Amino acid sequence: MKISKSWKAVVAAVVAGGGTLSTALADDTITAAEGWAAGLAVLAALGFTWAVPNKPAAPPRDL
Fold first, then answer.
1. Closest among 56, 32, 1, 4 to 24, alpha carbons compared
2. How is residue 28 annotated by DSSP?
3. From CA 2, how far away is CA 54, in angstroms rounded?
4. Which long-range contacts (CB under 8 A, 24 or more apart) does 42-48 make?
5. DSSP-derived secondary structure letter, 52
6. What is the pLDDT of residue 5?
7. What's the rounded Cα separation, in Å, for the pair 45 and 48?
8. How far apart are CA 15 and CA 4, in angstroms?
9. What is the C-alpha to C-alpha distance for residues 52 and 35, in angstroms, rounded to an integer?
10. CB atoms within 10 A of CB 31
C-alpha cells in the first residue's frame, strides 16, 4: 500500500484538528484561544508530517 506524502499530512492535520476541537467543545463553547490552538495543531501536524519522509519500499525478495 502506497500512501503519498500529501495524504499522510492531510490525515494527520484532520486528526490533530479534530482532537483539539473535540477537547475544546467539552464545555459547549470554543474560545479564541482554543480556536488558535486548533489552528496551530493543524499547521504543526501538516508541517511535521510533511517533513518526515516515507519509509522507502523494500526490495522484492527472491523465493
1. 32
2. T
3. 9
4. 42/13, 42/16, 42/17, 43/13, 44/16, 45/9, 45/12, 45/13, 45/15, 45/16, 45/17, 46/9, 46/10, 46/12, 46/13, 48/12
5. S
6. 66
7. 5
8. 17
9. 26
10. 10
Q: Judge whether 18 and 39 are in contact, CB under 8 Å.
A: no
Task: Write the pLDDT tens digit of every residue in 5-63.
Answer: 688 888 999 999 999 999 999 999 999 999 999 999 999 999 898 888 777 777 878 76
- Residue indicated by cell numbers 482532537: 19
Vertex 42 angle, CA 45 and 21, to 5°? 125
Q: Which residue shows C-alpha cell 516515507? A: 54
